[in-house]
Automatic annotation (TrEMBL):
Alphabetized UniProt keyword annotations: Metal-binding, Zinc, Zinc-finger
Coiled-coil residue spans: none
InterPro entries reported for this sequence: TPR-like_helical_dom_sf, Znf_RING, Znf_RING/FYVE/PHD, Znf_RING_CS
Domain RING-type: 115-149
UniProt biased composition (Basic and acidic residues): 75-91
Protein name as annotated: RING-type domain-containing protein
Biased composition (Low complexity): 13-27
Molecular-function GO terms, alphabetical: ubiquitin protein ligase activity; zinc ion binding
Matches recorded under Gene3D superfamilies: Tetratricopeptide repeat domain (1.25.40.10), Zinc/RING finger domain, C3HC4 (zinc finger) (3.30.40.10)
GO biological process: protein ubiquitination
Gene source species: Eragrostis curvula (weeping love grass)
CC annotations in GO: cytoplasm
Length: 405
């Protein structure tokens, strides 16, 4: 007889943050900027309890669309009848892209296409037996009984049919992007041509958000897959817009996040390759944006960390020193920004630590003292509690290093 268990709601622990910082800072900006070319259409939308649809794509009351998966128009027929007069006179270049699967844009919820554990699009969709509830493979493998109903998991089977639907959902959105070179796109059925509105940034934002959700829930393979798609989109756009600084900075951030995925998976060589490419893109950009400076220094520090763990101290020091130079220059121009000062002290500590391990004790002590001086001069208000906690943490480490013999 099947045994059922009463369960408390499952809490999925987040991936612990690195002391070097995160590459998600530029990506958060990427999620907010409305019109940057990254390929595709999906944008994160706020939840709407009164909406029954699930697609994070833009909608327009005069645009109807039939879902090629279900064959349903999801209530668009009425809007089509009432809006025909306006559509005839509309400039085709201003027609917003429509989800090819017919999903509404009123809510960000992806319904059956998402995993309830990581809250991201399903990746390697798997079905529990006997209860038939579906999750990402990496997510459900961490459980012995179903996190949704509490039934004992007797087996896990791949659900290729649902995974094909998820993949078609992503591919369908990839096809809705304006080609600046060609200009026109054929309308399904061959009845005419339409120039979609350039909303390609939104697909990149959508993929990054899915990746960040998956990464926080330790579904690293899913995060890596979505980030790889996003990187491919940006590379494609860069072929026709090589001088686009926004695209280059966003690609640098995405490559850094891919490095984080590989590092978490234990693939140090691939992580270093992604971090180095990230640093290469970002180092060639004007360093007026503090988010860009932070992301560049993080990539350099993480390469240094991996070299340090490998025992290659000279190489580690080289990358730490490059990051230190970036942060020194940032503090010269933005000395009032507390986070930049703390970043500088952290880089000073990293370089000094390597110097000590290389036998350069006097140089190491100078570095530790300079870092302490930076942090002790930094005065933070009560509204900067998180920065104060970080400042004290780094300061404690530095004092311990000076006391160490």
């Amino acid at each position: 007889m099947r045994k059922w268990k009463k369960r408390e709601p499952t809490s999925v622990s987040a991936v612990h943050s690195q002391s070097n910082g995160s590459h998600s800072s530029i990506s958060k900006v990427l999620l907010q900027r409305p019109r940057i070319n990254l390929g595709g259409v999906c944008a994160p939308m706020k939840s709407n309890k009164n909406s029954s649809g699930v697609c994070p794509a833009k909608s327009d009351k005069n645009i109807s669309g039939v879902c090629p998966v279900t064959g349903k128009n999801n209530g668009a027929e009425h809007r089509n009848r009432t809006g025909n007069a306006e559509e005839k006179n509309a400039d085709p270049r201003m027609v917003p892209a429509k989800c090819p699967f017919g999903y509404d844009s009123g809510t960000f919820k992806l319904g059956p296409l998402s995993c309830m554990i990581c809250q991201a699009l399903l990746h390697e969709c798997s079905k529990c037996t006997p209860c038939s509830h579906k999750f990402c493979k990496a997510c459900i493998l961490r459980f012995k009984d179903c996190p949704l109903c509490g039934a004992d998991i007797e087996g896990i089977e791949p659900d290729s049919q649902l995974q094909v639907l998820v993949d078609r959902f992503i591919d369908g959105h990839a096809r809705i992007k304006r080609s600046h070179a060609a200009g026109n796109a054929e309308v399904p059925g061959g009845k005419g041509k339409v120039i979609y509105e350039d909303v390609s940034m939104e697909r990149g934002a959508f993929l990054v958000q899915q990746a960040m959700r998956a990464f926080r829930s330790q579904n690293i393979e899913s995060a890596k897959s979505r980030l790889s798609m996003c990187a491919e989109d940006i590379r494609e756009e860069l072929k026709s817009s090589e001088d686009n600084l926004d695209l280059r900075s966003q690609l640098g951030a995405v490559l850094g996040m891919l490095g984080d995925c590989c590092r978490t998976l234990g693939d140090a060589p691939s992580a270093i390759t992604y971090y180095e490419e990230s640093a290469e893109f970002l180092s060639k950009l004007p360093r007026k944006d503090l988010e860009l400076v932070h992301t560049l220094s993080v990539s350099l520090n993480k390469i240094g960390d991996l070299r340090y763990y490998e025992g290659d101290l000279q190489s580690a020091r080289s990358y730490y020193a490059r990051s230190l130079d970036v942060r020194r220059n940032a503090v010269k121009e933005h000395s009032e920004v507390a986070s930049q000062v703390i970043d500088l002290a952290t880089s000073l500590a990293k370089v000094a630590d390597v110097d000590r391990n290389l036998g350069n004790e006097s140089i190491a002590i100078e570095g530790f003292k300079e870092a302490i001086d930076c942090l002790e001069k930094l005065k933070l208000g009560s509204e900067q509690a998180s920065l104060e906690q970080r400042r004290c943490s780094v300061l404690d480490f530095l004092h311990n290093q000076l006391a160490y013999k």
